[in-house]
Amino acid sequence: DEDRSLLDTALADEFDDEETGPAPVLAVVGRPNVGKSTLINRILGRREAVVEDVPGVTRDRVSYPAEWNGRPFTLVDTGGWDIDVRGMASRIADQAEIAVDMADAAIFVVDARTGVTSTDEHVVRMLRRAARPVVLAVNKVDDERGELQAAEFWSLGLGEPHTVSAMHGRGVADLLDTVLEVLPEVSAVDQKLEVGGPRRVALLGRPNVGKSSLLNRLVGSERVLVDNVAGTTRDPVDELVELGGRQWRFVDTAGIRKRARQASGADFYAALRTQTALERAEVAVILLEADQVISEQDVRIVKTAVEAGRAIVLAFNKWDLIDEERRHQLEGEIQRDLAHVAWAPRVNLSAKTGRHADKLVPAMERALESWDTRIPTGRLNAFLGELVAANPHPLRGGKQPRILFGTQASNRPPRFVLFTTGFLDPGYRRFIARRLRETFGFEGTPIDISMRIRE
Ligand code: GDP
Ligand code: GDP
């Protein structure tokens, strides 16, 4: 039946995807000054040292595409993730924890010259919990004399210490060979969706809001059917189209077009399609009917998209049908039912007449830009410092939880982690979220704030 064939199409598409999948992510962690950046430059094959000799210089967490023996991977540099972390074992471990959380494997770099430190041991305890493959690199072994010293790092319990000299390149090839043995072919962490390719859009909304009409309007005659060879049984799943000077991939458009021919089971079908389309999309354009009261189903679709962490644009369709009175009503309904997505850009359009259809693409671009945003750690902590100074957390039972520092753990959508000395009230967290939006924008993207409590 219809539902079964949609599932088959969705599954077949997953397996047939011509992309090989996102490259695995390798994080390089360790105390400041052990040589992480030097090692990264070495792996990337950069000639000139871009390493700052000044300790504590704020660099930001960056990731780079890398390759070894023909295998691509993404290198994440945690050097200078923060402000002043010198001597603060737990914060260094926290940062390593976030990096490792987002990675498929890690190189843990230690310094042969200082020997095992208590901070190293702290990081190791964290790495054990993270349950990711870790390769131990003992750096600054510039010649054979250092080899013996490195033996003491067996005590960390991470297996063989691989001696390297990031500076001179010694041992780095062997280290990478070992890393490739533990690194999966395809990343299992949620960092998919490469930059630069067509951006993926899902057109969502309950039956009859005008999805097919809008798709036809946008895609028009420029339509390029992907996966659609005339006469095959396979439905076109995605449509690739150029709008506003860039390519967009409208995902699961077969689901939209098929819907137009189908009468029964519409709700079930719509919910199923919403899920499968969201899984593959970066931005969800959610259509609502301006001439109809906002329904529970509309709100549910919005909620599903927010929970999926996608960028969101609200498109109020059939604008040609409404009068002044309905406009006012609608405004009230939006305030009441869609207050939780007040940050989503709204476009009032008509798929039928084409009114304001041209505003959709800029709105999608704004939402995706917010979705991609990374706030540098230094800026984030300056913001948190000011916010906390002006509005400290209310006292609770004589105690006042403090925010030690924060970092943006990931983007797409932006997720923040705050390290605190106690539980932050939900109200205070909402206040932080509101201020984050006021300061950094984030129009069109959900943001997430979580806490890690340190005593
Ligand atoms: P990070 O803070 O862990 O990223 O460390 P850096 O890469 O900035 O390196 C810290 C210092 O150690 C710099 O002065 C580097 O030149 C030095 N260094 C890095 N690798 C080596 C190495 O293999 N041998 C020696 N002798 N010094 C190194
Ligand atoms: P879908 O089920 O979401 O794909 O909705 P369709 O695109 O099939 O549209 C449902 C009905 O609404 C059709 O009769 C369309 O002609 C009509 N429709 C779609 N967009 C508009 C619009 O902007 N204005 C008006 N007046 N009718 C529209």
Automatic annotation (TrEMBL):
Keyword terms of this UniProt record: GTP-binding, Nucleotide-binding, Repeat, Ribosome biogenesis
GO molecular function, one term: GTP binding
Domain of life of the native organism: Bacteria
Xref: Pfam families: KH_dom-like, MMR_HSR1
One GO biological process term: ribosome biogenesis
Chain residues that bind GTP 2: 205-212, 252-256, 317-320
Residues that coordinate or bind GTP 1: 30-37, 77-81, 139-142
Transmembrane annotation, as ranges: none
CDD domains recorded: EngA1 (cd01894), EngA2 (cd01895)
EngA-type G domain mapped to chain residues: 24-187, 199-372
Gene3D superfamilies in alphabetical order: 3.30.300.20, P-loop containing nucleotide triphosphate hydrolases (3.40.50.300)
Subunit structure: Associates with the 50S ribosomal subunit.
Similarity-based family: Belongs to the TRAFAC class TrmE-Era-EngA-EngB-Septin-like GTPase superfamily. EngA (Der) GTPase family.
The protein's role, per its UniProt record: GTPase that plays an essential role in the late steps of ribosome biogenesis.
PANTHER family: GTPASE DER
Protein name: GTPase Der
Protein's organism: Brevibacterium rongguiense
